[in-house]
Each structure stands twice: as C-alpha cells, then as structure tokens.
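Record 1 of the preview.
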Amino acid sequence: MANVHSTAVHAGHAEPNFSTKAIWRTFWILLVITCIELIIGMFIAPHFHSLRIMFNILYIFLTLTKAFYIVAEFMHLRHELKNLIMTIVVPLFLFFWFIGAFLWDGNSYRSLRNHYDPHHKEQSSVKVPETEHGGAAKKPGELE
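->
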C-alpha cells in the first residue's frame, strides 16, 4: 500500500520533459524579442526620424525571428523531415517574391501612366501657397 502512495506522489509531480522545456525556452525568447520591439518602437525610434528605414528593417527581422520560433516549436515544424519543411518554406518565399514583384510592377505602371498619358496626372502632394484673397500666389515674372 505504501508503494502505491509513493508512486502517486511522484506521478503528480512529474518532471517537465523535453517538449515542456522547449516551449518555455521559446516563450522566453518570444518575450525578450517582443520587449526589444516595444522598447525600440516606443522610446528609441520616435527620436530618430531619419533612420526610419533602418528601424523598419529591424522590425521585419525581429518579426520574422518570432515567426520562425512560433512555427518551429508550436507547429512542430522543427522536428519534421527536411522535405516537408521545404514543401512549406519554399512556397512561402515565393509568396513574398510575388508580393514584391506585384508592387514593383504596379509602381512601374503608375510611373509610365503618369509619363505617357496626357489626360491623367496624379495629384501632387506639394501645396501651392495661397494669397490673402484665396487665389494661388503668382511666381515672379508670371503674367496675370
């Protein structure tokens, strides 16, 4: 009888196995990366407007790192065969390539349309200063 009691006590307080340790490690990694993103985004980046592109690249890198850990550990992709991993990862990279190609092609189409279509011009973001009577200010040497 005492033997049954001792096994029940040990069964209730089982040591964490490898998967539990890996999940906690992933949790702490994700927590640290998220805290770094928040500190940079809330306290550092607002003071350096000229470095906006660098901060955007950093955010993309940190977000992709978090996505890797989430997919690898919580979707169990890290422990799969290489062929299955490539079956999932290669189309993902192609998806990102498609997005970049479509954005590049759309920008090219917009530029060519603005250049060659005389009846279509996109509005400029530059504002023309107005006079006190509400009309546009005349440039020096411009006829009235």
